[in-house]
Specification:
- With 348 residues, the chain is an all-alpha fold.
- Helix 8 packs across helix 9 and helix 11 packs across helix 12.
- The protein has a domain of 176 residues.
- Helices cover 84% and strands 0% of the residues.
- It is elongated.
Length: 348
């Protein structure tokens, strides 16, 4: 057996066992690496500020935890506590309103009465309580899993920031990529992921703030529900509905018809239509223009927008990072093929 074949077999075997060893952590390691790529400019700023890679990596990790994971942890913990503390009187008023609505729906919804009767006839306080407790249990389990993964992401993110340059150089040598190819791949991926990361933060904060301000005037915790709306807004199509629909039903159930109509119209027209449909692509476009100066490195803002939606639909919460990364990687590979084709045509 030739030595190179033996080394190839050893490499394949070690790669297989490495996969088995680190399979449970592959997702969080990938997310951490992509977040490190997304925030490379922040890491560089801290390195210039502190003149220390270790201090810069620690500061970047702390900032990521405060801006990205702390609000979601607060939201999940508060929601779990709130669901567990719901009183029977509140659920009873919701039950009475639902049965009243089903028995006498508005004239324009009369055609739905047969379907509503069959669907809501078994609803009572006990079923609502059991449903609320089951949701609380699911959210509690999800919170524990998410916080564990969030902690691992921050740990891997710290090491990615601290050792990122050495890892990139090692991969370049191992894959024997040309300087031009590796530079193009790193530049494209870093550029797109930076735009995605800052766009997600900006749009979630905008929509969350709009909703939080509105519900705060209605007497609710604007900070909590603003954070909740910011994260649910990342869910395609139904994200905002998951927030304003319960508010509408509850306000109707306690007789605050004006508040119910206001939060419905405000959420649909101001947040869903104006902010999400029109302002969000403009934010992505503006960040794209501000962060990137090389036209070749720019990816159309609509492509990034739909990549985020596709990623969330396919991979769930972390898809907002994976979707644009996969899309950017695909287009970069196409550019490499295009460059090779031009070289071959030029030689021939």
């Amino acid at each position: 057996m030739k030595p190179q074949y033996f080394i190839a077999i050893l490499f394949a075997t070690s790669l297989y066992w490495m996969y088995l060893l680190y399979a449970p952590f592959l997702l969080v390691m990938t997310i951490a690496a992509l977040l490190a790529v997304s925030t490379a400019s922040i890491q560089k700023y801290f390195e210039n500020l502190f003149s220390s890679k270790l201090a810069a990596a620690f500061s970047s990790s702390l900032l990521l935890g405060l801006l990205f994971f702390a609000p979601l942890g607060y939201f999940l913990a508060s929601l779990t506590i709130w669901l567990n503390s719901i009183e029977a009187n509140s659920l009873q008023s919701v039950e009475i309103y639902i049965h009243s609505f089903v028995s006498n729906p508005p004239s324009f919804l009369q055609f739905l009465k047969p379907y509503l009767n069959g669907y809501f006839q078994d609803i009572d306080v006990n079923s609502l309580t059991a449903y609320a407790l089951s949701i609380a249990a699911k959210i509690g389990a999800f919170s524990a899993g998410f916080l564990k993964n969030a902690f691992l992401v921050i740990v891997f993110y710290f090491f990615a920031q601290y050792n990122g340059a050495y890892i990139v150089l090692f991969i370049k040598r191992a894959l024997q990529m040309s300087v031009e190819d590796s530079t193009l791949l790193a530049r494209e991926l870093s550029s797109v992921m930076s735009v995605v990361f800052y766009s997600i933060i900006a749009t979630a904060m905008l929509e969350g703030a709009l909703f939080g301000i509105a519900v705060s005037f209605m007497g609710y915790n604007g900070l909590l529900f603003g954070i909740m709306y910011g994260f649910t807004s990342l869910i395609p199509v139904v994200g905002g509905v998951l927030m304003w629909l319960p508010f509408m039903l509850y306000e109707f159930s306690i007789g605050n018809d004006n508040n119910a109509i206001f939060i419905t119209l405000y959420s649909i027209f101001v947040i869903s239509i104006i902010a999400d449909t029109f302002i969000k692509p403009l934010i992505i476009k503006e960040i794209n223009k501000k962060l990137l100066t090389d036209d070749d490195a720019k990816l159309n803002e609509l492509v990034i927008f739909f990549a985020i939606i596709a990623g969330l639909t396919t991979f769930g919460f972390w898809g907002m990072i994976l979707g644009p990364a996969i899309t950017a990687f695909f287009f970069t590979i196409l550019k490499l093929f295009e460059a090779r084709t031009r070289e071959c045509e030029a030689k021939s």
